[in-house]
Design goal:
single chain; 252 residues; alpha/beta; 6-stranded mixed sheet; 6-stranded parallel sheet; 25% strand; elongated
């Protein structure tokens, strides 16, 4: 974790926090924090700052034990290191993503969250297996965990919102025009003559299809709404690689 995310329920008082479970284990096992060490923290949905480790309780490794490892943090009230630091500016881009294979969904969600993306639309496409929509990875708690991992990686307290659309044409015709208002729109399409621009310098919308890209009908529908087809060159890239490359290029 590059940022320890705190929730309001973690606070024992105005300046004291108790962490349990995954975050506590990470602080103990990865940060190897000791009493007096400082950690970078942020309040979920709020400001960031620092905290000092006030106590560490390792718990026990016995399988039958019920005691959880806990870490107590005292928020530091020093100039420029209190919970008054703003999170990074959000990425001014809306991502429309054909639902990827379930096994890569969590990694993709975490990755785009770490970029600072705040709005993701998962859509169906002709090349998306219908069974993907039945995956447990689409459960709210699974998606929220992926978002949390991305926030911790990217040092961001502001979460991303994920929308799901199982009918591509209905989404494109009814909702995409509103999403495009005031935004430059791009669809990644293998073989497109136009190379993806670099540093668009303003609000944008990016649509990325499944492995192999959107089918011609879907691309044509997007183009009819003002979305420009762009590519990253001749090489065929995985969705994970393409999304990261496109975001880095568009928003550099």
């Amino acid at each position: 974790m590059n940022l320890i995310l705190l929730e309001r329920d973690d606070f024992l008082g105005p300046q004291r926090v108790r962490l349990t479970g995954r975050r506590a284990r990470h602080v103990i096992e990865v940060h190897r924090a000791k009493v007096g060490d400082r950690l970078r923290v942020g309040l979920l949905g709020g400001a960031m700052g620092e905290a000092v480790v006030a106590a560490v309780e390792q718990g026990t490794a016995e399988p039958a034990a019920t005691k959880l490892a806990t870490v107590e943090l005292a928020v530091v009230e020093l100039a420029e290191v209190t919970l008054g630091q703003k999170p990074p500016s959000p990425l001014d881009l809306v991502l429309v993503l054909a639902l990827p294979r379930p096994k890569v969904l969590r990694r993709l969600v975490a990755a785009v969250t770490s970029f600072g993306l705040k709005e993701l639309h998962l859509v169906h496409s002709a090349r998306v297996e219908k069974s993907y929509w039945q995956s447990p990875r689409l459960r709210p708690e699974e998606l929220q965990m992926a978002i949390r991992l991305g926030q911790e990686q990217g040092r961001d307290t502001l979460p991303m919102v994920i929308h799901q659309h199982r009918r591509f044409r209905l989404f494109a015709e009814d909702q995409l025009p509103q999403l495009l208002e005031g935004r430059a729109g791009y669809v990644a399409h293998p073989g497109a003559e136009r190379v993806c621009p670099s540093g668009v310098g303003g609000p944008a919308l990016l649509a990325v299809g499944p492995e192999g890209g959107f089918i011609d009908f879907e691309v044509q529908l997007l183009q009819s709404l003002g979305v420009a087809a762009v590519s990253l060159g001749e090489r065929a890239l995985s969705v994970e690689t393409a999304v990261s490359a496109l975001l880095g290029r568009l928003m550099s």
